[in-house]
Amino acid sequence: MITAPPEGSEPSPVSRYAEQGRARRVTNVLFRRPETTIAVVLVILLAYFSIRNSAFYSYANVVTMLQYVAPIAVIGAGEVLLLDLAEIDLSAGQVFLTAPWFVVLLHQHSVPLGWGIAISLLGCIAIGAVNGGLTVWLRVPSFVATLGTNYVLAGFVLIGSNDIQTDMVGTTGKFGAWVGISNWSEPACALIVVLLVWAMLKGTAFGVHITATGGNQLGAEEAGIPVRTIKIMCFIIIALISGIIGIFDSIRIGSLDPAAPGLTEMLSGVSAAVIGGTALTGGKATVLGTLIGAIVLGVLEDGFNLIGVSANWFILVEGAVILLAMAVNVQIGRATSASPS
Amino acid sequence: MSIDPSIDPLEAAAAKAPIISPADLVLRTEGITKRFGPLIALRGIDLHIKRGEVLGLVGDNGSGKSTFVKILAGFQHQDEGQIFLDEKPVDFHSVREARRAGIETVYQDLALVPALSVYENLFLNREITRFGKIGWLSNKKMKELARQHLAEIRIDIPSVEALVEKLSGGQRQAVALARATQSTNKVLLLDEPLAAMGAKESALVIELVKDLSRNHGISMLIIDHNYTHLFELCDRLNVLQDGRIVLDQNTSDTSLDELTDLMVADFRRRVEAEQQSSP
């Protein structure tokens, strides 16, 4: 253990850096925050759509918008954990779609909804564990491992449903309101999940260890961090939260389409994470940015619907926004890392 | 000075070594041997570090010095021989065990996480939390302790909240050293602490190492193949050749010339041996 230096030694030079203009520090912090770009984009979009259509801020439209945002935000928050680890989960969108199918299939075998949901979520945990195990123990790159699980799950849904559109298990009363019938239950669920993920990543040792594992796996291992357990845990978390929001989403909509593309759903989440300022290479993650990114994607989809622009245009503009936000992010990153810190 | 190959270098080293009381020894190894298949990397290493001493271990590539360090750090296990800490026999099967026993290793700045801040790196996997192990991080407390510790060992870092990726090479090495000295430890192993560093950066790290040993009494083993660095950093030098220690002298009793002669003689011997074995 370090003992205090003997008397008469020089004072520490650490304080030399303490004096720095407060204003400069504030602007620095603002520009260095990876979320800044996407927040600016969001403000511009909100302004644009509210000018184009006065109904933009109506209760009904805000609800619709939040329902677009909810799944993207949750899957995105899950992907942030994996991107922070320098991994990815391509099956998250398919888990989102498959979890309610589990519930329906169980219901066909007369398992009540509550139990069906519980068992389905256990299934999601198992899928996450398989993804994690494939990546960590069998050393299959997560990109490939989760792509495999994605197709296995998609096939399972097609076979189990005979490729026929099915109604989601109906529900009423208080329980039904809580799990998706009410306008607010899906967005509220998404908000809670995203906040929990944010708190975990920012405020706990587990979160720091995720970033450490993604930023320098060998160094993390040397510090005694159980990197394999951490990775498996993150695969389980994303599968679980994707399943939860999937069940909420399907109960709200009321029907299930077996041919729905899980990869598209997953890519929306990854896009939200990436335009929000999360790096694909690990060690740099922001849940807040991802939430803003998800809102941007939701606002775009809803806004274009509202002002009557065709869905084809929406795809094009979404692509342009992603490219623009990324280009600005990279340039700001380069500019700030060049300046002395 | 020339080397007479007929004299067993081990005996020569033993004859030269001064008599030390066991209470002064923080680390000692006895006959550490390591084989990799037919290759013998270490042929019985006897080495000791006194309390507060900075010992330099010199050796060319392939001399076995990195194998030896890996054994001390718990990365690998010796085939034969014994390590003593404070004269008690110890046996490591993992880096964590070695660390718990008090041997901390600094691998340049490689163990730091660039995307985390200075204080997060200092407290990596020994975070201070409020409610148990999975509890909420006490960032304020960690920052405060980090500042205190850096001030104690007089490390000059802009802010403990700065990301490590924004620091210079010398500053990163300083953070790595700060982390290693933060926990209770007996011996610090430094693997090429000045590698890939400019003159100014090197000076910073040399100053820090000297200060740690002089003012904080930390015992260190420094591995390097740059003699000039080692002469600046160390109290005593051991030279490793072909898995044996062939020289053990105080830095003040030896010279760059002597070391160079030793290395050249070894190089000649090896070249001659190679010529004889190939027709």
How would you describe what is shown here?
Chain A has one domain (36-329): ABC transporter involved in vitamin B12 uptake, BtuC (Orthogonal Bundle), CATH 1.10.3470. Chain A is 73% helix and 1% strand. Chain A has helices spanning 22-32, 36-52, 59-84, 92-108, 113-136, 142-161, 173-181, 185-203, 205-215, 217-222, 227-253, 262-275, 287-306, 311-338, and strands at 166-167, 255-256. Chain A has a two-stranded antiparallel ribbon. In chain A, α3 (59-84) packs parallel to α8 (185-203), α4 (92-108) crosses α11 (227-253) and α9 crosses α11 (227-253). The longest helix of chain A is centred in the C-terminal third of the chain and has 28 residues, at 311-338. Chain A is globular and about 65 Å long. By secondary structure, chain B is α/β, with parallel strands linked by helices. Chain B has 2 domains: 1-102 and 187-279, Rossmann fold, CATH 3.40.50.300; 112-183, no CATH class. Chain B has helices at residues 9-16, 65-73, 95-101, 118-122, 139-152, 169-182, 199-216, 227-233, 256-277; strands at 25-36, 39-50, 54-58, 80-85, 88-90, 103-107, 187-191, 219-224, 236-241, 244-250. In chain B, strands 6-7-8-3-9-10 form a 6-stranded mixed sheet, sandwiched between helices. The model of chain B has no long low-confidence stretch (mean pLDDT 83).
